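Translate structure to sequence.
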C-alpha cells in the first residue's frame, strides 16, 4: 500500500549564501514533493544545539551548530510517498565528495560540514524535526 510520508528539510546557510534556494526548491517540485509549508529564518546557537542534540557527543557538534546559526536558513515540510528515503537520495551523501551526480549536495555542497541541505533520516526524527520548525496548525493540511 502506498502511504504518504512527511519529512523536514533545511536549505542550510551556505546554500542560502550561494543564492541556491530557488534551485533547491525546484528540485523538490520536479521530484514530486509537495511543499506543505516553508519558512526562512535564523536560528540561535542554542536552537541549533537543540535541533542537533542527537550529535551532541560528536567532535563536529560545536562547529556544526556555529555553522547552522551563522545566517538565514529555509525550513520546509515536504510530503510524498516514501518522502524520507527519496529526499535522502535527492540530497546525496553527507560528504559532497562522495555524492552522486545529479544530487543537491554534489551540486551545492562544499565540504562534509557545508553540505547545503539537511533531511530527516527516519520517521521518528522527521516527527521531531517537523514539530521543531512548524506548529500543528501549519502541518494540518
Ligand atoms: P546527514 O546530514 O547526511 O544526515 P549527519 O546526520 O551524520 O549527516 O550529520 C549532520 C550534519 O553534521 C551533516 O549534514 C554535516 O553538516 C555535519 N557533519 C557530519 N559529519 C561531519 C564531519 N565529520 N565533520 C564536520 N561536519 C560534519
Ligand atoms: Mg542526519
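Result:
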Amino acid at each position: 500500500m502506498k502511504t504518504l510520508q512527511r519529512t523536514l528539510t533545511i536549505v542550510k546557510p551556505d546554500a542560502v549564501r550561494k543564492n541556491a534556494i530557488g534551485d533547491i526548491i525546484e528540485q523538490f517540485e520536479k521530484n514530486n514533493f509537495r511543499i506543505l509549508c516553508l519558512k526562512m529564518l535564523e536560528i540561535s546557537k542554542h536552537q541549533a544545539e537543540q535541533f542537533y542534540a542527537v550529535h551532541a557527543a560528536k567532535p563536529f557538534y560545536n562547529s556544526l551548530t556555529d555553522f547552522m546559526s551563522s545566517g538565514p536558513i529555509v525550513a520546509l515540510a515536504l510530503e510524498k510517498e516514501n518522502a524520507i528515503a527519496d529526499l535522502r537520495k535527492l540530497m546525496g551523501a553527507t560528504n559532497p565528495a562522495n555524492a552522486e551526480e545529479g544530487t543537491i549536495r554534489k551540486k551545492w555542497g562544499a565540504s562534509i560540514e557545508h553540505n547545503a541541505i539537511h533531511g530527516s533520516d527516519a520517521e521518528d526524527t522527521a516527527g521531531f524535526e517537523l514539530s521543531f520548525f512548524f506548529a500543528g496548525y501549519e502541518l494540518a493540511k
